[in-house]
Specification:
Chain C: GO terms for molecular function: sarcosine oxidase activity. Chain C: This is Sarcosine oxidase subunit delta. Chain C: It comes from Gemmobacter aquatilis. The complex is a heterotrimer. By secondary structure, chain A is an alpha+beta fold. Chain A is built from five helices and eleven strands; from the N terminus they run βββαβββααββαβββα. In chain A, strands 1-2-8-11-10-9 form a six-stranded antiparallel beta sheet, with helices on one face. The termini of chain A are far apart. By secondary structure, chain B is an alpha+beta fold. In chain B, the strands form 13 sheets. In chain B, strands 8, 9, 12, 13, 14, 15 and 27 form a seven-stranded mixed beta sheet that branches. Chain B has a six-stranded mixed beta sheet with strand order 40-41-42-39-33-43. A six-stranded antiparallel beta sheet of chain B has the order 45-48-49-44-47-46, covered by helices on one side. Chain B is elongated, with a radius of gyration of 37 Å. Chain C is 18% helix and 35% strand. Chain C is built from two helices and six strands; from the N terminus they run E-E-E-H-E-E-E-H. The chains are: A alpha+beta, B alpha+beta, C alpha+beta. Chains in contact: A-B, A-C, B-C. At the A-B interface, strand 7 and helix 5 of A face strand 8, strand 15, strand 30, strand 38 and helix 20 of B.
Chain lengths: 188, 968, 95
C-alpha cells in the first residue's frame, strides 16, 4: 500500500522527545542516534580492526567509549561494540556497517532496542550515587559500562564531566525516566 | 515549671526553644537536645515499662545502646514504635508516647506480671511447650501474644520514601570520636578518599560529653576544629546521622543515613532515610565503647543511669538527672562522673567497689529516692534522685564479629576487644580497640590511618598528635552485688536478672549460646549492648570458669534496628519493579484494555467493548472473531535473539533437541529446547534469515534465562564455534495477525506479494510497509492462517493503528492474552502451565522431536530410565462428560471408585479454558499412559476446591486437528 | 562480594548470576558409548568442599562473560578469576 505512512513515537510514547530540568541537572530523551551491535566473527578480530580503521570507525578498549564523526562506539563485550551514528543519515545502520565489515562481523540493528537519556549538569556523581554502583567521580571521561539502575540493566557512557548518556531497554523507558526524576528530586 | 533540671553548659542552642509532648504533656527543650535529654531536663525520669514485668523504667544511657527508654514517636501513619529516646533529635512539635503500659505510664495494670514474676522466670517460654498441647494453644499462646511486643504499629502505609545508594572510598572510618577524627585527619591530609560516618547528629563522640582538654581547649572545641579542617578537604565526606550497619564481604559496608528523622516530616521529594552500600578499600572501626552496669537489687529504677551517661547529660546537654546524686563504680572513670557533677554544683556521693563499698538496694517505685549502701563500716541509706553506675567499658566490637570473628578478653580493661580475624581490611582504633584514654584514642586513630595509607600506597603526613589525658581506667572486676532476695537486673530490655542466669546454670544451660536463648539475654532492639558481658560474667562466676573460657556470643548485622522501608527502598507498591510496556500499550490503554503482568511486561489480557460486562464476553468475542475472520495480537514480549556466525546452524543443533542446520533460508521451524536433565526448558520458533543468520524466539517468561543458557553453551561448551548472540526483543514491534482473512488484511499494507506461493506456511521474509523495513513470519500459535509482522519499535504504535484501520472491512479484532490462551488450548499447544520444569518432550507428546542423531543439550538424559516408561505422563485433552460442567486446573485424575489418595493419582489438569467454538470447557493435562486412554472416562477431583467432575479423555487437538486452516 | 573480572576489574557480585561447580564445563560427548552413565555423573555428582571451590558466575549485568571464580567457601576469599571460555579451551573444548 503505497500511501501507508507510519509515524514514529518516542520511547516515552510521544511525538516529540521529553526534556526536564531538576535542580542543576537536565534530563533529555534523545532520539537522533542509530545503534548497531558489531561483533567480530571468530578469529577475525584483526580484520575487523583494519576495516574499522580504514572507515574511521573507533573500536574503544573494554570499559571505554570513543567518538569519530559520524561514528561513535562503546565496548559491550569481548570483541563486541555498540556503534552509534546519526539517525538521519544512518537510519538503516546495519546496511552501513555491513558495507564496512562484510562478513568479518556479526551486525545487528539495535536502534529501537534502547532508549537514550542524556543527563547533563554539574555534580552528576551526586545524582548517580542514588542510582548506580558506578564510581562516577573516579571514572575517566569516555568511560562506558553496563550498570543496573532501579533493577533496569543500562549502559552508561560518560561523555564528559557534565554529560552522561544512559541507554536503557526501550520498553522500560517510562520506568527509567521516573527513576531519574525521582533520584534528581531527592538528591538536589 | 519548665526544664527544672536544666543546668549550665552543654552544646544546646538556648537561644531557641522547641516545644514537644510526651504522653500528652507539653515540654520545652532546645536544638541539640535529644528526646531523652529534654525529658531529663524537664524532670521526667520515668519513660517506659519493661517488656516482661512492666517495671517502671527510665533512660539508662545516652546513646544507641539504650534498652529502656523506647517510645512511640510521631502520630498517624508516621508513628514509629520502639524508638530510642536517646537518639531522637528534638524538633519543634515532636510528639512521643510511652509504650507497653495501660492505661498510663505511672499506673500500668500489666505490672501485675511483676508480682507473678516467679512464673515468668527464665525458660518460661520454653517450658510452656512441654506442657500439654492444649495448654499452649488455648492458654499460653493467647496470653503471650497479647502481652508480647513493646510498641504498636500504625497499620497504615508508610508515607515516606527511602532511597538506596552507592558510595566509594579508599578508607571508611566508622565513628567520629577522637580516634575516628584523628584517623580522618591523617588519611584526609594524605589525599585519601575518606568517608567518616557517625550515628550521632553531632560528630565528636565522647569528646562532646567530657570536660577534659585536648590540645589546650575543650574536647568539644577540638572536635569542631578537626571537623572544620575535614570539611575543607575535598576528598573527605562527613556523614553524620549515619550508622554503619554491617560488614559485608570484600570491603563492602552497609550504612543507614537518617536524612529527615530530625525533621517533623521529610521535605518534598526527599527520602526519610538512605540505605548506602559503601565500597571501601580499607576500613577503620572507631566506634567507641559502651559502659556496662553492675547488677544489684532494684538497680532498674528511673534515675539510675550508667555513670558515663549521667555525666554526658550534664556536660553535653546541660541536663541533670536529679538534685542529689551517687556514683557506684569499680573503676576510675566513675570518679570522673562524680567530679563533673560536683563541678556543676550537684552533691555527689561516691560508692567505690574497690574499697569494699556497694549498693545493696534502692527505693522509689516510679523514680529513685534513695540507695542503701553497705561499706566495711556498716549499712546506711543515702537519699538521692540520681545514681550513676560504672562496671567498666565494653569496646563496641560488634562489626568486627560480622564475619564470625570472636572477640578476645583483655584482662587490663576487663573487657572483650576485637579478635585478630575480623573482616579483611578492617582494623580498630580507640576505645573500640580497647584504648580507653583520649590519648590512646588519638594515637591509635593516627596509627591505624597510617597503616591504612600504607596499604593504599599513599604517603602518610607527619604525625601531629594533640595533647590529651592518658589516665588508666584502674578497674577491679565487680559484676554483681550478692545481697538479699530481690532481683538484680542484667538485661533491662528483656528483664533478665542475676537469678535468671543462676536458674539457667542450675538447669544446665551453661553455654553462652544456650544462656542467651534460655534467658533471652541480649535479644531485641538493643541486642544486649549493655547487658551481654555482664550476663556471661555472672555465668562464668557460677561455673567457676574464667570469662575467656566461658566465651561470648557474637554479633550479626544490623548494628542497630533498621526500618523495613529502608531495606525496601523505592521498590514498593507500583514501583516494586520496573514496568515494560509493549508497542501497542498506548493504543490499548485508549481502548480500555485490561492488562495483566507477565514478568515485568504489561500485556493486554482482553479488550472489552462497550456493553460487555463480563470478561468471558470479551474473550469469547475475540476468539470467535479471530477464527471467523481475523484477529491481531501484540506478541512483542516473546524473547527474540539474533544468532549469527558460520556455526550458527551447528549451535542451534546443540541447543535445540531438533535439527536446525537443515532449515532453508527464508523458513521458520518450531524448536524444542531441553535442559541437560532431559526436561523441556523452552520452546519457540526460529527463523533462518540468511546463510549465517537466524532469529530465535523464546517464551516471554524465559527470555533472560534462555539467553544466559545460550551464552553458557557458547562460551563454556563450544568456545571455538563461530557464533554471536544479541537480544533484539526490544528492537522490533511484532504483531500476530491470525484468521482466515489475515492475508487479505496484511496484503493491504505490505508492499510485496504475500500469497501462499510467495510466502508459504512457515516462510519468512524481509519486506517493506510503505517503504519501511519490516519482517514477516508465517507462523501460527492460534491454529489459523497467521503471520507475525515486525517493524522497528518506534513504528509499533502506528502499525497497530494501521492494522486496525485496514481490518475494519473484515471486522478484525485485537485480542489479548486470554483469547490467545483459549486458542492455543484448542490447538493443543503447550505453554507455561505445561512447561513446568518437570515435563519431558515425551510427556508433551513431542518425543519424536528429540533427534538421536546429534548431541544436543538434554538428549542423553531425556532417554534415561524412568523418562521413557510407557505408562508415563502424556499430554491429553479433557472435556467434561456433562458439557455444562466447568473444569478446574489442578484437578487430579482418578479412576471411578478409587480413593482420593496419592497412590491412585493418575495425573492432573494443567490448563483449562472455555472454548466458545465448542461451547463447553476444555482442558489440557498430563495423564499416566494418556496415549492409550483416549475415550476413557475418569474423575477430575480437586480436593482444595472440593469439586469433582466426570471427564472424558480426548486428543489435545480440539480444533482443526489436521492443521488445514493454518496452511490455507 | 567483589569479583575481580579479568577484563573489567572489580565488580559487585550483585551484577552476576551464580550457576555452580565449574565442572559443568567438562560436558561429556553425548554420542560416545556409555553416555548415559557419563551424563549422570556430570549432572548429578558434585564435590561440596569446605574451602577452595571453582565455580561458574555469569556477568549478566555486565559484559555477559561466563567466569570461573575460585572462591573459598569458608571465608569468601576469591583467589582466582578466569574467563570460562579460556578454561574451556584449556580443557580441550572447541566446537
Amino acid at each position: 500500500m503505497a500511501d501507508l505512512m507510519l509515524a514514529p513515537l518516542t520511547p516515552l510514547g510521544h511525538a516529540l522527545p521529553e526534556q526536564r530540568n531538576i535542580g542543576p541537572v537536565t534530563l533529555t530523551e534523545v532520539i537522533d542516534s542509530a545503534l548497531g551491535s558489531l561483533t567480530a566473527r571468530a578469529g577475525r578480530l584483526a580484520e575487523l580492526a583494519e576495516r574499522a580503521a580504514a572507515a574511521g570507525l573507533p573500536l574503544p578498549a573494554p570499559g571505554q567509549s570513543a567518538e569519530a564523526a559520524p561514528y561513535g562506539a562503546f565496548w559491550l563485550a569481548p570483541e563486541s561494540w555498540m556503534v552509534e551514528a546519526p539517525f538521519a543519515s544512518h537510519e538503516d545502520i546495519r546496511a552501513h556497517l555491513v558495507a564496512i565489515f562484510g562478513d568479518a562481523a556479526s551486525i545487528t540493528e539495535q536502534t529501537d532496542a534502547w532508549v537514550r537519556f542524556d543527563v547533563t549538569g554539574a555534580d552528576l556523581p551526586r545524582l548517580f550515587e542514588r542510582l548506580s554502583n558506578v564510581d562516577l567521580a573516579r571514572a575517566p571521561d569516555h568511560a562506558a559500562t553496563r550498570t543496573v539502575i532501579d533493577h533496569i540493566g543500562c549502559y552508561l557512557v560518560k561523555r564528559g564531566p557534565t554529560r552522561i548518556s544512559l541507554f536503557g531497554p526501550r520498553s522500560s523507558a517510562p520506568s527509567l525516566w521516573h527513576a531519574l526524576e525521582t533520584a534528581a528530586r531527592a538528591a538536589f | 515549671m519548665t526544664q527544672e533540671n536544666r543546668i549550665s553548659g552543654g552544646q544546646i542552642d538556648r537561644a531557641r526553644t522547641l516545644r514537644f509532648s510526651f504522653d500528652g504533656h507539653q515540654y520545652e527543650g532546645h536544638p541539640g537536645d535529644t528526646l531523652a535529654s529534654a525529658l531529663l531536663a524537664n524532670g521526667v525520669r520515668l519513660m517506659g515499662r519493661s517488656f516482661k514485668y512492666h517495671r517502671p523504667r527510665g533512660v539508662i544511657s545516652a546513646g544507641s545502646e539504650e534498652p529502656n527508654a523506647l517510645v512511640e514517636l510521631r502520630a498517624g501513619a508516621r508513628r514509629e514504635p520502639n524508638t530510642r529516646a536517646t537518639v531522637v533529635e528534638l524538633f519543634d512539635g515532636l510528639s512521643a508516647e510511652s509504650q507497653n503500659r495501660w492505661p498510663t505510664l505511672a499506673f500500668d495494670a500489666m505490672a501485675i506480671n511483676d508480682r507473678l514474676s516467679p512464673f515468668f522466670a527464665a525458660g518460661f517460654y520454653y517450658k510452656t511447650f512441654m506442657w500439654p498441647r492444649a495448654f499452649w494453644e488455648k492458654l499460653y499462646e493467647p496470653i503471650i501474644r497479647r502481652a508480647a511486643g513493646l510498641g504498636s504499629l500504625s497499620k497504615l502505609d508508610d508515607p515516606d520514601d527511602y532511597d538506596k545508594g552507592f558510595l566509594h572510598c579508599d578508607l571508611l572510618i566508622i565513628g567520629a570520636g577522637p580516634a575516628g577524627l584523628m584517623a580522618a585527619l591523617t588519611a584526609g591530609r594524605a589525599g585519601a578518599r575518606v568517608i567518616l560516618a557517625d550515628e550521632d547528629f553531632r560528630m565528636g563522640g565522647r569528646l562532646n560529653a567530657e570536660t577534659y582538654e585536648v590540645d589546650g581547649r575543650s574536647g568539644a572545641d577540638w572536635a569542631l576544629k578537626a571537623l572544620a579542617e575535614l570539611r575543607s578537604l575535598p576528598s573527605v565526606r562527613l556523614m553524620p546521622r549515619t550508622t554503619i550497619l554491617g560488614a559485608m564481604d570484600h570491603g563492602i559496608y552497609t550504612a543507614l543515613e537518617r536524612v529527615s528523622d530530625h525533621l517533623p516530616a521529610p521535605l518534598p521529594g526527599k527520602p526519610r532515610q538512605i540505605l548506602w552500600r559503601i565500597y571501601s578499600r580499607r576500613a577503620i572501626l572507631a566506634g567507641g565503647a559502651t559502659e556496662r552496669p553492675i547488677a544489684f537489687e532494684n538497680n532498674d529504677r528511673p534515675g539510675i543511669l550508667l555513670a558515663g551517661s549521667l555525666r554526658a547529660y550534664a556536660n553535653r546537654w546541660g541536663a541533670a538527672v536529679g538534685k542529689r546524686a551517687a556514683v557506684f563504680t569499680n573503676n576510675d572513670d566513675g570518679l570522673r562522673t562524680a567530679a563533673d557533677l560536683a563541678a556543676k554544683g550537684i552533691e555527689t556521693r561516691v560508692i567505690d567497689a574497690r574499697k569494699g563499698e556497694e549498693v545493696i538496694d534502692t527505693s522509689g517505685r516510679l523514680g529513685l529516692k534513695s540507695v542503701t549502701i553497705r561499706t566495711p563500716n556498716g549499712t546506711e541509706t543515702f537519699r538521692c534522685d540520681a545514681l550513676g553506675v560504672s562496671g567498666g567499658w565494653n569496646p563496641n566490637v560488634n562489626i568486627t564479629s560480622h564475619h564470625r570473628s570472636r572477640p578476645v578478653w583483655d584482662e587490663a580493661i576487663c573487657a572483650f576487644v576485637p579478635g585478630a580475624d575480623g573482616p579483611p581490611g578492617l582494623s580498630s582504633a580507640g576505645a573500640a580497640a580497647g584504648r580507653l584514654s583520649t590519648h590512646g584514642a588519638l594515637e591509635s586513630g593516627a596509627a591505624e590511618a597510617e597503616a591504612a595509607l600504607a596499604d593504599l600506597g599513599l604517603a602518610a603526613p607527619a604525625r601531629d598528635l594533640p595533647v590529651a589525658e592518658d589516665a588508666p581506667i584502674a578497674i577491679t572486676p565487680k559484676w554483681y552485688v550478692s545481697a538479699g532476695k530481690g532481683r538484680a537486673w542484667i538485661d533491662q530490655q528483656n528483664d533478665v536478672t542475676v537469678k535468671d542466669v543462676k536458674l539457667a546454670h542450675q538447669e544446665n544451660y551453661v553455654s553462652v549460646e544456650h544462656l542467651k536463648r534460655y534467658t533471652t539475654l541480649g535479644m531485641a532492639t538493643d541486642q544486649g549492648k549493655t547487658g551481654n558481658v555482664l550476663g556471661l560474667a555472672v555465668m562464668a562466676e557460677l561455673t567457676g570458669r574464667s570469662i575467656p573460657q566461658t566465651g561470648t556470643t557474637i554479633y550479626r548485622p544490623p548494628y542497630t534496628p533498621v526500618a523495613m522501608g529502608a531495606l525496601a527502598g523505592r521498590s514498593r507498591g507500583q514501583e516494586f519493579k520496573p514496568t515494560r510496556l509493549t508497542p501497542s500499550h498506548k493504543w490499548a490503554t485508549e481502548q480500555g484494555a485490561v492488562f495483566v503482568e507477565v514478568g515485568q511486561w504489561l500485556r493486554a489480557q482482553w479488550l472489552p467493548r462497550t456493553g460487555e460486562t463480563h470478561w468471558r464476553e470479551s474473550v469469547d468475542r475475540e476468539v470467535l472473531a479471530t477464527r471467523k475472520s481475523v484477529g491481531i495480537c501484540d506478541v512483542t514480549t516473546l524473547g527474540k535473539i539474533d544468532i549469527q556466525g558460520t556455526d550458527a546452524g551447528a549451535f542451534l543443533n546443540k541447543v535445540y533437541a531438533n535439527t536446525f542446520s537443515t532449515l532453508a533460508v527464508g523458513k521458520c521451524r518450531y524448536g524444542l529446547m531441553l535442559r541437560e536433565d532431559g526436561m523441556v526448558f523452552d520452546d519457540g520458533t526460529t527463523a533462518r534469515l540468511g546463510d549465517h543468520e537466524y532469529v530465535m524466539t523464546t517464551t516471554t517468561a524465559n527470555a533472560v534465562g534462555v539467553f544466559r543458557h545460550l551464552e553458557f553453551v557458547r562460551q563454556c561448551l563450544c568456545p571455538d564455534m563461530d557464533v554471536q548472540l544479541i537480544s533484539t526483543t526490544e528492537a522490533w514491534a511484532q504483531y500476530s495477525v491470525a484468521g482466515p482473512n489475515a492475508r487479505k488484511l496484511l496484503q493491504k499494507l505490505v508492499d510485496q506479494d504475500i500469497s501462499d506461493a510467495a510466502l508459504p506456511y512457515m516462510g519468512c521474509a524481509e519486506i517493506t510497509l510503505g517503504g519501511l523495513r519490516a519482517r514477516i513470519f508465517r507462523i501460527s500459535f492460534s491454529g489459523e492462517l497467521a503471520y507475525e509482522i515486525a517493524v522497528p519499535t518506534r513504528y509499533g504504535d502506528a502499525l497497530i493503528r494501521a492494522l486496525v484501520a485496514a481490518g475494519e472491512e473484515f471486522d478484525a479484532v485485537v485480542y489479548g492474552t486470554e483469547a490467545l490462551g483459549v486458542m492455543r488450548v484448542e490447538k493443543g499447544h503447550v505453554a507455561g502451565n505445561e512447561l513446568n520444569g518437570q515435563s519431558s518432550a515425551l510427556n508433551m507428546g513431542l518425543g519424536k522431536m528429540v533427534s538421536q542423531k546429534k548431541d544436543s543439550i538434554g538428549m542423553v538424559l531425556s532417554q534415561r530410565e524412568g523418562m521413557t516408561t510407557a505408562n508415563g505422563y502424556r499430554l491429553v485433552g479433557i472435556k467434561p462428560v456433562n458439557p455444562a460442567e466447568k473444569l478446574t486446573a489442578g484437578s487430579h485424575f482418578l479412576e471411578k471408585g478409587a480413593a482420593e489418595v496419592a497412590a491412585n493419582d493418575l495425573g492432573w489438569i494443567t490448563s483449562t479454558v472455555h472454548s466458545p467454538h465448542l461451547g463447553h470447557a476444555i482442558a489440557l493435562g498430563y495423564l499416566k499412559g494418556g496415549d492409550s486412554r483416549k475415550g476413557q472416562r475418569l474423575r477430575a477431583a480437586n480436593l482444595l476446591a472440593k469439586t469433582e467432575v466426570e471427564v472424558e479423555i480426548v486428543s489435545p487437538h480440539f480444533f482443526d486437528p489436521e492443521g488445514e486452516r493454518l496452511r490455507g | 562480594m567483589i569479583i575481580n573480572h579479568p577484563i573489567l576489574g572489580p565488580r559487585d557480585a550483585q551484577e552476576f548470576v551464580y550457576l555452580g561447580d565449574a565442572a559443568l564445563i567438562a560436558r561429556p560427548d553425548g554420542l560416545a558409548p556409555g553416555a548415559q552413565e557419563a551424563f549422570h555423573d556430570y549432572l548429578y555428582l558434585r564435590d561440596n568442599p569446605a574451602g577452595l571451590h571453582r565455580e561458574l558466575w555469569y556477568h549478566e549485568q555486565g559484559d555477559r562473560s561466563w567466569l570461573v571464580v575460585t572462591r573459598n567457601t569458608l571465608t569468601h576469599e576469591i583467589t582466582q578469576v578466569e574467563l570460562a571460555r579460556d578454561v574451556a579451551r584449556s580443557l580441550g573444548r572447541s566446537k
